[in-house]
Every structure is written in C-alpha cells, then in structure tokens.
Amino acid sequence: MPPLLLFDIDLTLIATSGAGRLALDRAFERITGVRSATEGVPFDGRTDRAIILEILRRCGSPPSRFPDVCDAYLDELPAALREKSGEVLPGVYPLLDALARELPGIGLATGNLRAGARAKLGHFGLWHRFAAGGFGDDHTDRAALVRSGITALAAALGAPPDPAEAIVIGDTPLDVAAARAAGARAVAVATGRYSESDLLAAGADAVLASFSDLDRALAALLG
Ligand SMILES: [Mg+2]
Fold it and tell me: Average of pLDDT values for 105-127?
C-alpha cells in the first residue's frame, strides 16, 4: 500500500515572507478598525481558525465576525503575496516531481483556510499538485484537521483511510504532535523556526534539514 503523504504549507513547502500576516492585519483593520492586530500572536503550526478567533478576542470583537475576517483576509491575500517576495523552499519542486512519479497522489495537512491554501500554493503554481487535504477552516485542533486530511486523501485515491499508512510532513513541533495524535507518522523538516533537535525532541520519526537532498527526502517519505 503506498503511503498517504500530507504536507504542511508554510515553511515546509513555501515561505511567503509574511504575506499571510500582512493580509490578516489588513483584514482585521477593515473589520474591527484595529491596526497591527496580529502583533504578538504566534502563527507557527496553528490553524487559521484558532488564530483568527484569538485575535477577535484580543480586539474585543465577537467570534461571530469570524466569517467576515476570513472573507477580508482572502480578499487581501493575493495582493499581499505579490507584494512580499516569497519563495518555494529548496528541493520542493524536484521532490514533488519525484513523488508524482512514485505515488498516485499526495495531500495537504495545513492550518490554512482551504481558499488561503489555494491562493498561497496557486501563487507559486503548486496547488494542482495536491489531490486533497485537511484545512484550518473548521478546526482549532490540528490533529482533527490531520484526520480530515487523511480521510479526504484516501477517498480521492480510493485507498483505505488508515492513519497508520499516513505520513504528515511539517516544520513545527505542533505539526509533529498533531500527526502523532492522529495516529500517523511525522517527518519534520527544519526549514522553519525550529531546529532538527527541537523537532526530534517533539517526537518526529525522521527529521530533514531541508528537501535539498532528494535521496534522503525520498528515503524518509517512501522508505
Ligand atoms: Mg508550517
């Protein structure tokens, strides 16, 4: 049975150089009038739903404004992506090409809103590479979105939705913890704000410095 691979997006596949935070600041200013609303709010490994609900609380706005903030954020995101000079991380294109030759499909497990994930990956021409995923629209708990992603990817590929066959790839200790909580294996890549030793300590089954070494990356993901 080929593995179900589910990738995180930010600092795993791409770096948007703060475009997401910029778009969210602009969205909160439009909806609540509060400037720099995201200041001091950690994003790493969290879901957009959890982040937006926390900032609404900080702004003294009710959670019922969640859909309005999402709409404004998705409206602002394409321009923010164009303004910031983000990049696809080293080794990602060759890795995705190699996986496309080896597997019937791959998926996403990301805290991004689905439409935000489409905007970010679409900006770099990568959205079509993913068959299905779990997203941050409905979940504040990352393990729940990992479970959704496994179910969605398995359905897209006609495979059993077995977490034991799933590998979640991410850059934060929260990505690793969510994978483990969902019953999946965790492969971590130290291209974000966490070191290889941080990610090993979080319980990752394997840790890569980056995807630059294609043979090592394929060995970790395909065994
Ligand atoms: Mg990430």
Answer: 98
Q: How many angstroms separate the alpha carbon of residue 102 from the centre of ligand 1?
A: 24
Q: How far is the CA of 121 from the centre of ligand 1 (A)?
A: 13
141 shares its domain with 130: yes
199 and 145 assigned to the same domain: yes
Q: In the prediction, which pLDDT does 85 show?
A: 86
Distance 199 CA to ligand 1 centre (A): 12
Position 51 scores a pLDDT of: 96
Question: What's the average model confidence in pLDDT over 65-89?
Answer: 97
Rounded to the nearest angstrom, the distance between the alpha carbon of 60 and the centre of ligand 1 is 28
Task: Output the pTM of the full model.
Answer: 0.97
Boundaries of domain holding 72: 19-83
Cβ atoms within 10 Å, residue 76: 21
The residue among 45, 66, 83 that closes a domain is: 83
- 60 — alpha (psi -120 to 50), left (phi > 0) or beta? left
Question: Rounded to the nearest whole angstrom, what is the distance from the C-alpha of residue 33 to the centroid of ligand 1?
Answer: 28
Among residues 27, 49, 83, which one ends one of the domains? 83
